[in-house]
Specification:
Chain lengths: ~300, ~650
Amino acid sequence: MSHLQRLESESIHIMREVVAQFHNPVMLYSIGKDSSVMLHLAMKAFHPSKPPFPLLHVDTTWKFREMIEFRDRRAAELRIDLIVHINTEGVAQGMGPFSHGSATHTDVMKTEALKQALNTYGFDAAFGGARRDEEKSRAKERIFSFRTTTHRWDPKNQRPELWNLYNSRIDKGESIRVFPLSNWTELDIWQYIYQESIPVVPLYFAKRRPVVERDGALIMVDDDRMPLEPGETPQEKSVRFRTLGCYPLTGAVESQATTLPEVIGEMLLAKTSERQGRVIDRDAGASMEAKKQEGYF
Amino acid sequence: MPQSPTLPENVPENVPESVATDVETYLQAQQDKSFLRFITCGSVDDGKSTLIGRLLYDCKLLFEDQLASLSRDSARFGTTGADNFDFALLVDGLTAEREQGITIDVAYRFFSTGRRKFIVADTPGHEQYTRNMVTGASTAELAVLLVDARKGLLTQTFRHSYIVSLLGIRHVVLAVNKMDLVDWDRAAFEEISADYRDFASKLGIDQVTCIPVAATTGDNVSRRSDTMPWYSGSTLLEHLETVQVAQDEADGPFRLPVQWVNRPSLEFRGFSGTIARGAVRPGDAVAILPSAQTTTVSRIVTIDGDLEVASTGQAVTLVLADEIDISRGDVIASTEDRPEAADQFAAHVVWMSEQAMLPGRSYILQIGTSSVNAQVTNIKHKVNVNTLEHAAATHLELNDITFCNLSLDHPVPFDAYSDNREMGGFILVDRLSNATVGCGMIDFALRRASNIHWQSMKVDKMARAGTASQKPCVLWFTGLSGAGKSTIADMVEQRLHAMGKQTMSLDGDNVRHGLNRDLGFTDEDRVENIRRVGEVSKLMVEAGLITLVSFISPFRSERRLARGLMDDDEFIEVFVDAPLEICEDRDPKGLYKKARAGELPNFTGIDSAYEPPEAPELHLNAGAGAPEALAEQVVVLLRARGVI
């Protein structure tokens, strides 16, 4: 088997283990390329059945508009249940990255919102598209990652994971986060998207878009909620995104790559890792590890 | 901030220049890349993390932002001087680990070349992290063992080699590191190599490759060393790229552990799973284990269309010709060469928990897609991982490696681990904490005759109870029907369970429907009922459990009889005292109404007597207090008596 076949089989095996052993699983769907691959694998794993779990999108209300359009279109095309959860308390407080800063915004609209949704629906397992190659603290996370009743991750108290045996036992209120793409790299993801012709959000391809440069990052002016600093005027630049999140927190790269091979070509020649475009990672030395302990995916 | 060592152009060397113009050709070529999982063994002192960092660096898999972060971290925590990247920092993920300068877990690293994608399991080398190494080795096909050229083979080299062989890894690369510190001396390398080959052959590791390297300078890691012209073999990376570790995917007898039954409609019934070994084609005769029924494969279904053939490692869905009852945990296998199904094994077990394993305790054993209850019945010996000597043992502690007999409550299909990892490797899960506490590798099945039976266990009730830090006892709840016995007992049991105590409850519902199905409600039958419940309670106490018995048990003499079966202090009589009027008013099961209507003869309180206890250990006024408060009184009593 080629490396992509092995990765595919492993992911499918993991998904089937979850469905066979949990009562109420859910797939976190963040609309990005990893989620697209994860969803594609789920369609394969359970064919001819539909994936026997819903998708959950935690909508911070600050996602790119093209992401939301893509999300709704894909769910309809594949006829999959999609749960969209918004932290309405956060919305009532006028929460946003501009008014409250990226850390508070992410905490309230993403981490807290995710916990609200998991509690509301009582999910006992939640698939996430995180990869071990993304970030140092992820490199040690298990494929079946235990969460306490308050959704906390304890990196020092993880269950050993051997062979392809996954321990799914939990008590009431506890849950497992499951990472079927743990062993994939960014390049594997793109190669697989190319090989399988998996649809992805058009934001991954270069197009002329209105952007402003802030703190070294190119931020797209996706709607009129973005306050411009004095002297700042959006400029049309040919840009694309390597990762997708809240538009004010996601830096674009200048690019001419309008096709998948061109995007992959640029990636192969890239000099920075993909998370570099994410404002959240740079807050503190080990901010991802801290966020994950609090329940962030 | 340290100076960067000469930064290579940050283009992976496996990416040809033409990528900019012809990505599609490149991508086509990439799709056939193979895959290798390996583990690196050694300690920080041997330069293990440095070697991995060097591989990533040389494969140009470090990006500028990661190098910048590494550069910052090197200045803050580094040990290699201001001018060098401390590659070890790159692969030590968690903050605490970085600050302590040690690797305490298993980290997985990824890199790839034009030929192969690699996953590296990076695990710590010290003896106290044996479990981490075992975990990393379980999915590895090859091991890179590091030794320091100055020190040669050390105790840990032997330990690591033993674990590698135990986990079934047949390919070992001995990387003799720090050659720069022995002046690139050929004799030093050759002496170490010869010693190691000698040792490895004793462990049955037949594929050994020795390579002299210097991880800090990169000599013979990915770049052929100019300073060691006497070495003509492959560099480490070349070897990793080309070594053949996997056997042919179609070889071996077919095995598919069923994960999930795929049943979207009445017309389709498929069995989903990952092929653990061998190949399958439509028309093949297959046996279902453990039931041993046979049928033929009619389709191999995937979303991309039916397959003509599928083999080891593929995740597929099989449709079978006959309607046979198959569920998760069954194995679909070749009819000609079937796996055994057994419930008694000899296996090597590695203990991974700080809480000791005691023979006779019940754990959940997961193998393939089966989960069963299992206990270690006999520890044959413990292996000293440093000397490989055998020693006797009565229990297992963290990192102990032992050879044991196990007994399961259901037969499971299996192959010996040495034949098939997926069919012979298992994990043990603690029933209370749900933690994965051990793992094992099946050597062979035991025939029943040679088995040591449960009854002969020399573990007594205090040993069993001691593991949950409790004193076994019987809480005997007596009182009228509707007084609240079961409600209070349930609450007490939930509280105890939450504290990690081991409990069992006996009440009319679970005893009268099974064990005492033949008994009615005459006085004679009531006596026999309580006698049996008393005997069962005694066994539960022997098992070390806090046993909660909720029976009306109206007669003093039978309660006295039950008390007499237990040791002093083990019998705690709880009188759940509620007036008849209140019980009759509650009437949760509508029994009083029936009794008053004459439909239930011999009903306690109506036409059969209830004899209140004269000196119960606890007297609950159950006509007034809330059940929570009453349950709390019971827990307080248990604490006061030292039961918990």
